[in-house]
Amino acid sequence: MIREDFLRGYLLLTTQPWGKLYRTVSEKQNGEPSPAEIQLELYYQVLGMTHATVWQQACAIHAMGNRWPSVDDLKITVQQHSPILTALPAPQQTNRDGYFSKDEFGRVLYETISTIGSLLGLREQMAVAIHAEQPEKLPDLQKRHRGMQQLLAKQLPTLNNDEMDRVLVQYPWIVAV
What we know:
elongated; about 60% helix
């Protein structure tokens, strides 16, 4: 997830009365980061690879609690609320080379899944750029990501019910795209 998505979930936690200690990231004191800044960075480093929708759901669950959640608490909640992907039966292959053609798979479904793969790849590249402190790469990656989101938004309505069900089983997070 990108930092903005992380901060949306983190905000749910810090706005609670028990999150006040971690609410303000202030200037460094004596050259040391504030406890709030340390906590924010720790949570982002450990949980930053979580999918944004799952992260925000986990934060919403803990925001209804009565104490600040530990990293382990959040990790458990993320695991419990991550979608369980079930295996779909593979289409029957007719090619000798071991690959399916677009027509055998279904052209519209094939293109939609290709777009989803591109979105996942771009998210991974953005996460790597953020963690490697290469912010100069982000604007281009974000622009490409928005373009893929728009393309996916056009492709999804063209799927039939069976194809949409197959896509949602494998990629339930796309409903938030």
